[in-house]
Amino acid sequence: MTEWIEPEHDDLRRIMRETRTVAVVGASPNPMRPSYGVWDYLRSASHYELYLVNPTVSEIDGTPVYPSLADLPVVPDMVDVFRRSSELPGVLRDTISVGAKTLWLQQGLWDEQIARDGVAAGLEVVMDRCLKVDYARLL
């Protein structure tokens, strides 16, 4: 069985440095939602090209929102996930099928089976961490 090992700070730094495109899955137009805060911070403070994914929204603050990862105009390097745990198997399938390199599960999301399956499929998997916090702290 493939084992997931929590990335060390050097690994997180490398992942974030090598990442150019990030898909924010579960993006919300509500400024009070964590996904909005992370996206808003990253669009002003990071080097990332950001793509928002939510099947129920067409744009957020003038930025287009795509219904699925498959609908993105690029292959994202990283998929940053703001979804319920019950949605993670589908997000993992989509992440693998579009050819992303990293599955990043935001703070509060932890699923050992998803992590093992992601690693077995060749993904780098980060769980229960906030991309905004780690970007600000490590880069």
From TrEMBL:
Domain (CoA-binding): residue spans on this chain: 15-109
Pfam family, one: CoA_binding_2
Superkingdom of the organism of origin: Bacteria
Database matches in SMART domains: CoA_binding (SM00881)
Cited InterPro entries: CoA-bd, NAD(P)-bd_dom_sf
PANTHER family referenced in this protein's UniProt entry, alphabetically: COA-BINDING DOMAIN-CONTAINING PROTEIN, CYTOPLASMIC PROTEIN-RELATED
Protein name (Swiss-Prot/TrEMBL): CoA-binding protein
Gene source species: Mycolicibacterium monacense (Mycobacterium monacense)
Organism placement in taxonomy: Bacteria, Bacillati, Actinomycetota, Actinomycetes, Mycobacteriales
